Every structure is written in structure tokens, then in C-alpha cells.
Amino acid sequence: MSSPPHMLVVAGSDSSGGAGIARDIATASHFGVRASLAVTAITVQTHLTVHMQQPIAASLVASQMRAAIAANPVAAIKIGMMPTAETVQTIAEVLAANPTLPAVLDPVIASSSGTRLMSDQALECLQQRHLSGCALITPNLPELAILTGQAIARTEAEIARQARILLEMGYRNVLVKGGHAAGPQSVDTVFSEGPPVHFASHRRSSSLRGTGCMLSSAIAANLALGRELAASIAAAKAFIDAAFE
Ligand code: PLP
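# pyridoxal-5'-phosphate complex -> structure
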């Protein structure tokens, strides 16, 4: 029997289990993909607040990534919480050494409760294109605004303008999550070389923590299964919609 494909999860832990690595592993399992791990931070959280966070040394993050890739048939990478500039730089180095591995970057800047999970210097590294070799970046509207240095986009035209700034920075594909916008539907839009592609879902009355983690991991899991990016995003969106049912 051949071994199932692996994805490498490069992310932070969340003691509440609501977000972070616990969500990433559960998502990988859902798609029949095995998760290898590079832990970037330990966070102490309840569902209401972040109490403490401890970055893992960048050299340890890089060593975990290299060992995971050496140990297993890693076919895609998901990148979540990156607490420091050194974390961003070291992840960029490992990605550069593995150019054929598609990486999905969830730019986790803050928790839903408002606590910053990424330093200003780490954010500057992202703005300076350190990780623009990733196959896909998945910002929500506040993250898109911060990454582009603009006010939060309120219209489709503003979203498109900000997404194009990320494309100009070198990101090949930008999935803008519309969950923070107004309206009866929540529309996610993928921007790339061609025309934008929209994915609409009913706006949910309930909230579920860790949906950003789950979406980016679901996309990476589908990439690890050998699917194209568009099909991977569609499968991941269907998975998230089902999680809310
Ligand atoms: N904690 C960790 C470790 C995360 O990786 C993330 C998001 O990716 C969060 C918290 C934020 O999740 P939430 O928006 O559900 O608070």
C-alpha cells in the first residue's frame, strides 16, 4: 500500500483547540492527508482571549521544516502564525530551497479577540515580499488592508485594487476572504493573472473560530493530493461551508 501524501503545517499551537495546529491537523485528516509539523509558536488561549504567546526560535522552525521534508513525501505546505521577522525569514529560506513545493500562506496578523500574533517587523518582512514565492496568500479584508497599507476595502473595486497590489508584490494568487464584508452573502474572490473568480456562501449567523486555519489547510491538503489550485480552493470552500452546517 502506498503511503498517503503529506502536507507540512508550519503554524502556532492554540491551547483552546479553536485555531492553529489542532485545526490544521484535523483538516488534513478530513482529506486523508497526513500532517508533518513545524511549530512556530506556543499560544495560551481560551475561546475569548489570548493569555500568553511564546515564539519558537527561528533555527528550530527551520530544523523542523527540513526534518519533516526529509522524513516524509511532503507535497504541499501550509503556513500560519509567524510571530517574528526571523520566523518569516527562515521560512522563506526553506521555501527557496524547495521551490517545487506549493505553499499556502494564511497571513495571521491577530486573533479574533484582537491580540496581535505577528510582530511589526514580521509584518514588514511580508510587505517586503519575503514570502511572495508562495503559490497562494489568503488574507481577510483587515489583513489585506494592513498588508497593502490601505483602509479596509468596502467595495469590490477597492478589494480588487488591494489584491492587485499583492499580485504586483509577486504573490501569484490572492484569495481574499469576504467574511468581514457586509451583505447577505459572503464572497471570497481569487485574483491571479486571469479574471477574478468568485466563491459565494450564505453569510453565517454563527461564528466558528479557526476558519482561516481550516481554509488554508484544506487548500494545502487538496494541493498535496495533486489537485489544481482552483479545484483545491473549491473543495476547501465546500468543506468550510459543511463545517458551518
Ligand atoms: N491562534 C493561532 C495559533 C492561530 O494560528 C490563529 C489563526 O490562524 C488564531 C489564534 C486566530 O484564530 P481566531 O481568529 O479564531 O482567534
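# post-check
The CA atoms of residues 45 and 139 lie 22 Å apart.
The first strand starts at residue 6 and ends at 14.
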